[in-house]
Structure to design on (227 residues):
């Protein structure tokens, strides 16, 4: 059974640009959550999608957005990138809400 | 605001020693998950505990969920260099968010086991 797949693995962007990250959950999983991991703040919750609906949102500015498609795949978008957005972005999939979460390998975003 | 305090933040021990990592909160969680993360990779789920007082064993790792479901511990017996990594606890279904996949993470414990 394939795990959670995140693409791309690495990304370098310039300040002011926008970026789209992709996550394919484990087959049969309908919940996808996104997290930002930085050395100073640890893992922080961005948002969660379940059956194409955003169910929960963390304390991040509106520049961070996401969506989920009918096949449960999810994308997150960050617009007007800032240097502080440099981080490892992690996607986690769960069979349903409030069940075990399995993480992808992450996308390492560097903003220069 | 729900918080999970993990301690210690850093631990450097010799192979063969025992250690315990603690995860504490003032909030009640419906489940507590422990992950291990290698540099540049995503966290790998080790165990999920859901019942107050529950104890789970995974080879040399013993996980316990507090009776009140506010705290948890991870004990490693006879640590090996392969245990080196970042250990994270994460609480799910905290108060006010029972029907959600949102996880609250502790800051993590960086473990180094020297041969």
């Amino acid at each position: 059974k394939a795990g959670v797949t995140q693409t791309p693995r690495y990304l370098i962007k310039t300040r002011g640009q926008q970026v789209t990250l992709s996550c394919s959950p484990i087959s049969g999983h309908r919940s996808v959550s996104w997290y930002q991991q930085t050395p100073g703040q640890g893992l922080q919750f961005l948002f969660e999608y379940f059956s194409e609906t955003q169910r929960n949102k963390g304390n991040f500015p509106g520049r961070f957005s996401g969506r989920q498609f009918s096949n449960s795949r999810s994308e997150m978008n960050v617009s007007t990138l800032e240097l502080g957005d440099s981080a490892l972005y992690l996607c986690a999939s769960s069979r349903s809400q409030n069940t075990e979460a399995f993480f992808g390998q992450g996308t390492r975003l560097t903003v220069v | 605001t729900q918080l999970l305090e993990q301690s210690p933040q850093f631990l450097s021990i010799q192979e063969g020693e025992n250690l315990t990592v603690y995860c504490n909160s003032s909030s009640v969680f419906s489940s507590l998950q422990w992950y291990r993360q290698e540099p540049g990779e995503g966290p790998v789920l080790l165990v999920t505990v859901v019942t107050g007082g529950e104890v789970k064993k995974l080879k040399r790792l013993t996980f316990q969920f507090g009776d009140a479901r506010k705290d948890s511990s991870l004990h490693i017996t006879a640590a090996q260099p392969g245990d080196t990594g970042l250990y994270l606890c994460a609480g799910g279904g905290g108060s006010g968010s029972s029907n959600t996949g949102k996880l609250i993470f502790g800051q993590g414990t960086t473990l180094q086991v020297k041969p």
